[in-house]
From TrEMBL:
It comes from Polaromonas hydrogenivorans. PANTHER family: HTH-TYPE TRANSCRIPTIONAL REGULATORY PROTEIN GABR. This is PLP-dependent aminotransferase family protein. It comes from the Bacteria. The keyword Transcription regulation applies. InterPro entries: Aminotransferase_I/II_large, HTH_trans_reg/aminotransferase, PyrdxlP-dep_Trfase, PyrdxlP-dep_Trfase_major, Tscrpt_reg_HTH_GntR, WH-like_DNA-bd_sf, WH_DNA-bd_sf.
Length: 492
């Protein structure tokens, strides 16, 4: 890297100077040290290596290095090499104003994307201290499957995938969705993506133009807000109640091009969309010629009540694009998800996915398809359900003392988080900060809201929290909620 920098500097000097080569190299090296690219005590490449890298004679390099040594910039140690002197003079620091002026400015879109609805503020992680728990995942088996497919010689497995993903994996996904989510589909309709974020972005890019209106739940999933805002869509918030999104006459003034929903376990309230509301939403999409983006992010984990059919399973007009992820059952870093598109969109989505995203990870996809086909996915899911069910139950038991007239739980039937709903005038953000002072991490429900001001509560994740941590932390959480409700009642 030093040679590359020096080559650039020598090229600049040659264009503006008639100095001999050894003097040009001297000036270039001197600048490198004065401006801190080479720090005191750092060892330079040998004169032979520098000469080779710069395309100069060794005598030219030695002459420049000798002059810098005489002036105290370098020190030569016999048998060791040439180093930047500890007494090397430093250039005066550049004024801060000049540095600030050189910083590039973000676009308006960039400012929006980096200033609100950020993962570090809203991502549901363990409510108690601890690291993500992947103990239910068979790591050794997974490593063997990956190694197997890396050892096998498939030239096409090292290339991009223009077919929407590894065919056996697409078939496995189709079989799974037909049985467990009542989605009627062919494997050709499945596109393997790098997760839900990429699926959402692909839908926004292909199905809507810049400035088109998208109906989104309020409160909403922060990741969808980011992906859809980046796509240039105009977000129209639609309130959520106990039965999911509530599209009404007030929303008809802003007809949608796209509708984004999480009907099986609304993120973050946990509401399950009723059958009547699902039919209403499908009729609304049909009337407006809109597309529904159904994010079924954690449907694998249902702990009570009968399973509810997916929107895609009820769709007769091919207006629903269904998306899911493997991250919840396996591990987040896997970064593999799937998107099911109507048959009329298969060719367009495959081509756009290939052109825009250059999808790959074929050996990883092959390992996952075999993992599913051999029954390991089902086994891992079964084990995870048992583990998460215990944590969920422990959390519910611990929260009981704070529940009553002014606090109730929503969304506990499914998923890896639940929501403690609080009075609409209680400051849930201040409560979350107070809880954080006790070493517990929860998210204020109001932080997920786009427009409404009446949604207050705490979003509490238990998927990564160790059982012992939940048993210890849940009573503390309940006590702090009770204290906040008493303060709220006293000032009401």
């Amino acid at each position: 890297m030093l040679s590359e920098f020096l080559l650039s500097e020598l090229s600049r000097l040659r264009a503006a100077s008639e100095l001999p080569l050894h003097r040009q190299l001297y000036e270039a090296l001197r600048r490198v040290m004065l401006e801190g690219y080479l720090q005191a005590g750092e060892r330079l490449d040998s004169s032979r290596d520098l000469a080779r890298g710069l395309g100069l004679s060794r005598n030219t390099v030695i002459t420049a290095l000798n002059q810098l040594t005489v002036e105290g910039y370098l020190v030569s140690r016999v048998g060791s090499g040439t180093y930047v002197s500890d007494n090397c003079p430093k250039a005066a620091p550049k004024p801060r104003a000049r540095l600030a002026a050189q910083r590039p400015h973000l676009s308006r879109r960039g400012e929006t994307l980096t200033s609100c609805y950020t993962a570090d503020q809203l991502e549901v992680q363990p409510f108690t201290a601890g690291i993500p728990d992947f103990s239910a995942f068979p790591v050794a088996l997974w490593q063997r499957l990956q190694n197997k497919h890396w050892r096998m010689s498939y030239p096409e497995m090292l290339d991009y995938s223009g077919a929407g993903g590894h065919a056996p994996l697409r078939r496995a996904v189709a079989d799974y969705l037909r049985v467990f989510r009542s989605v009627q589909l062919d494997a050709d309709q499945v596109i393997i993506t790098a997760g839900t974020q990429q699926s959402i972005a692909l839908c926004a890019q292909l199905l809507a133009d810049h400035g088109d209106t998208l109906w989104i739940e309020d409160p909403a999933y922060w990741g969808a807000i980011k992906a859809l805002t980046a796509g240039g869509l105009k977000l129209h918030p639609v309130a959520v109640d106990g039965e999911g999104m509530v599209p009404g006459a007030a929303n008809e003034a802003a007809p949608p091009r796209l509708i984004y929903v999480t009907p099986s376990h609304q993120y973050p309230t946990g509401a399950v969309m009723s059958l009547a509301r699902r039919r209403l939403l499908l009729a609304t999409a049909r009337r407006h010629g809109a597309w529904i983006l159904e994010d079924d992010y954690d449907s694998e984990f249902r702990f009570s009540g009968p399973p509810v059919s997916s929107l895609a399973g009820l769709d007769k007009d091919e207006r629903v694009l269904y998306m899911g992820t493997f991250s919840k059952v396996l591990y987040p870093g896997l970064k593999l998800g799937y998107l099911v598109v109507p048959k009329s969109l298969i060719a367009a989505f495959r081509q756009a996915h290939y052109d825009l995203n250059r999808p790959g990870q074929m050996p990883l996809q092959a390992a996952l398809s075999e993992f599913i086909e051999m029954g390991h996915f089902t086994a891992a899911l079964r084990k995870s359900r048992v583990s998460y069910a215990l944590r969920r139950q422990s959390l519910l038991e611990g929260l009981k003392p704070c529940l009553g007239e002014h606090a109730f739980i929503s969304g506990a039937e499914q998923g890896l988080h639940l929501c403690v709903r609080l009075p609409p005038t209680l400051d849930d953000q201040a409560l979350a900060r107070r809880i954080a002072e006790h070493g517990l991490l929860v998210r204020p429900l109001s932080g997920y809201c786009l427009q409404r001001r009446d949604a207050r509560g705490l979003v509490i994740g238990y998927g990564y929290a160790p059982l012992a941590g939940i048993m210890q932390g849940a009573p503390v959480l309940a006590r702090l909620i009770q204290e906040e409700i008493r303060r709220w009642k006293a000032g009401f």
